[in-house]
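Annotators were shown the component list below and the corresponding predicted structure, then asked to write short factual statements about the assembly.
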Amino acid sequence: MNISENITFPEASQEDRSLAIREALRNAIVDRRLAPGTKLSESEVGALFSVSRTVARAALQMLAFEGLVRIERNRGAFVSNPSPDEARQIFASRRLIEPGIIAAAVERITAADIEQFRRQLEEEQRHINERGPSARRAEIKASGDFHLMLASVAGNVILQKFMDELVGRSSLVIALYGRSGISSCGHNEHLAILDALEKGDAAQASQLMLHHIDHIEADLDLQLKQGFALKDALALT
Amino acid sequence: MNISENITFPEASQEDRSLAIREALRNAIVDRRLAPGTKLSESEVGALFSVSRTVARAALQMLAFEGLVRIERNRGAFVSNPSPDEARQIFASRRLIEPGIIAAAVERITAADIEQFRRQLEEEQRHINERGPSARRAEIKASGDFHLMLASVAGNVILQKFMDELVGRSSLVIALYGRSGISSCGHNEHLAILDALEKGDAAQASQLMLHHIDHIEADLDLQLKQGFALKDALALT
DNA sequence: CTTGGCCAAATCGTATGCAATCTGATCTGT
DNA sequence: ACAGATCAGATTGCATACGATTTGGCCAAG
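Structure shown to annotators:
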């Protein structure tokens, strides 16, 4: 039990490396640095992170479980290219789950939580103010984080896991089908939801959340891309 | 492209073997042939199914994602021992999701679906009539299958996946905390739900489903086991 | 010039080997 | 006799090796 061993900085890399790779790839996919359809070869991923194919493979399989990549037998892993129909199912699922999360969060939220939410929303505002593609990525990510924090406050780990998956897939869908202009309006809705939460008004917060999800989905170009779906049916299904 | 190659019987075993192992272990866990806390060593699982540790490990990791096993680093995989609190979260999640599934299913259910449901419910009834531990296992499984069929009819693959996980975990919880006597009353509730679905009455079907979930949860011994939770905090948490 | 089949390169699926870590049993010193 | 350290056995984490499958290009026949 050498103390020196424990003093080594909190073994960040010592942790499961496949988890770190999963996280890095997840961010890259959600940020759209990795375009849908991109092939993620096991050897390539392994080489990028200086690990063997074994651990790269584990990371890819985790992402496949989350729906962010699609694995075809003997062919490899590809960044998911969710169809418009899948996108609608994602938002339908969120409309079911998020009001329940609100209801649970209202019961448990603390003043400290609210303070943290406010800081998070300021961060979000900052990303909205800067323009440019990388700021837009950060904006999508920050917007997702708001919903994840909410799920965390709700205190139901299962719903939290579901929201993890749904937010990741939503970010991918927004990056794919989103129109750039209007998405910033979501920020005000986040603020309004937080205010309702602070007042303890679960019903209003739920209503606001539902409208918020509606707005996000309405901001997508799901109909026009049907011709697109035809094309990538030939290209990569 | 030899035709003879295609004629070879649909390579059922040639498919991913880890998926088959996952399924087998999943059934064993849900049927309670594998008790919570049981260690699932990679070598042991591999030997049982005549595969290498690699594929056994993949199966165990999939089960860990579903929450049916718990993997501790450098220690191995164990059958999950969900806490009463976790059980409550599972049912809270189901109360959110299943009414939404009902609403979607009402729109899409066909006469053929209803016919299939009726056959499934007859099967369920048969298991209830026989007594004995193996019949009880089959009863729990059949009851879960009803909910899974519902999710399948709803046509939302994401919710379907969530329900897969929730039903599996519920079965584990029921096997752990369930009182044997009353659970058969669930069958009538399934019938009532199906009737409401057939009439196209989504509101009533949702109400019935919520009550059904309430009844399942009320049938559990979640309070008394808190002393138990203390004990297994020392034993294997 | 087009079409079909064949072959090689690349990639995946799986088995196995080695190092690291944990468990729990023995041994020693007080 | 008991407490704590040490060591052996077992098990996991990871890397690598080998066979299987797919892919894309080349060559030949029509």
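Statements collected:
1. The longest strand of chain B covers residues 69-72.
2. Chain B has two domains: 16-79, 84-218.
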